[in-house]
User: Fold this.
Amino acid sequence: MKENVKATVRNILTSYLEQNHLRKTPERFAILDAVYDSNEHFTLEELGEKLNEKERFPVSRATLYNTLKLFMELRLVIRHRFQGSTKYEACYDNNSHCHQICTVCGKVSEFKSVKINDAISALHLKRFRKDGFSLYVYGICSTCQAKITRQLSKRNQSKQ
Assistant:
């Protein structure tokens, strides 16, 4: 993640904590850094493992959960509910984007579409200010489709 974005989100968190007379704990900043060092979606467990193993900064599940909840309120993190799992991602500099989700393996990847961005931008909603959007497109990825095709071919060959 760009260092200027990381510095900006650290400043947002610091200002919020100071204005609300909350403690500026090392855990909050370590979690924020780990989130903004990640370039992909992550689960609570994956974030905890990253902090514990790579950063050598273990934090409890409750601390992770409460801190991510705070980050969501500050619009620094967004939560996605993909097919049976909850994943998070940094969103300060990336509020609007689309996801394609494989219904077989669960793989999630992002894509950009100028047409979709333009359509959402042109959309006028009554009594509502748009901040961003997430679009989920469900289907079968090429890897899973190839597996399915191979399995069907094997079945057809064995029946002959």
In short: The radius of gyration is 20 Å. The chain has a mean pLDDT of 90. The longest strand covers residues 77-82.
